């Protein structure tokens, strides 16, 4: 089944949900982190979903699609790195929340990698 919209993709749904959760979490960080690590974390988490959207818009061109999905994985890794920094500096003190985000971003990265393999195999809009 070919998807009609990026909104139909499980990787988009998960990335969007996580971006909203990261946004909400980051606004509860200490004031000095709101515009430093908090801002970078918000941007990278939103970049994960935005690159999926941009790639989907270019899906007719397989290499373009793959390029933007690769950017999405990179933003996934960047978000994870920001979370590590926030937790290790004790700006993010909730260990359960930190573990949740780490697991979710690790899983999302794997989902996107699998999606890339599918696109490389010729299934342009399957997951």
Write a compact overview of the structure shown.
This protein is mostly helical.
Commentary on this structure:
It is a single chain. This protein has 127 residues and is mainly α. The protein has a single domain, classed as Up-down Bundle (de novo design (two linked rop proteins)). It contains 5 helices and no strands. The mean pLDDT is 93.
Q: CATH class, please?
A: Mainly Alpha
On the 0-100 scale, what is the average pLDDT? 93
Count of beta strands: 0
Kindly identify the CATH topology. de novo design (two linked rop proteins)
- How large a portion of the residues is in β-strands, by DSSP E? under 5%
Task: Say which CATH homologous superfamily is assigned.
Answer: 23S rRNA-intervening sequence
Distance between the termini: 10 Å
Share in helix: over 70%
Lay out the secondary structure.
Elements: H1 10-26, H2 31-34, H3 37-57, H4 62-88, H5 95-120
What descriptors fit this protein?
127 residues, mainly alpha, de novo design (two linked rop proteins), 5 helices, 0% strand, elongated
């Amino acid at each position: 089944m070919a998807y009609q919209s990026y909104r139909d993709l499980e990787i988009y749904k998960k990335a969007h949900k996580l971006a909203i959760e990261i946004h909400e979490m980051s606004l509860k960080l200490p004031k000095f982190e709101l515009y430093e690590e908090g801002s970078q974390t918000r941007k990278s988490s939103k970049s994960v979903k935005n690159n999926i959207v941009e790639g989907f818009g270019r899906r007719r061109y397989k290499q373009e699609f793959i390029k933007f999905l690769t950017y999405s994985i990179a933003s996934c890794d960047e978000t994870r790195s920001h979370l590590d920094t926030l937790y290790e500096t004790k700006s993010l003190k909730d260990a359960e929340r930190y573990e949740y985000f780490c697991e979710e971003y690790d899983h999302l990265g794997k989902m996107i990698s699998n999606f890339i393999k599918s696109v490389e195999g010729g299934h342009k809009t399957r997951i």
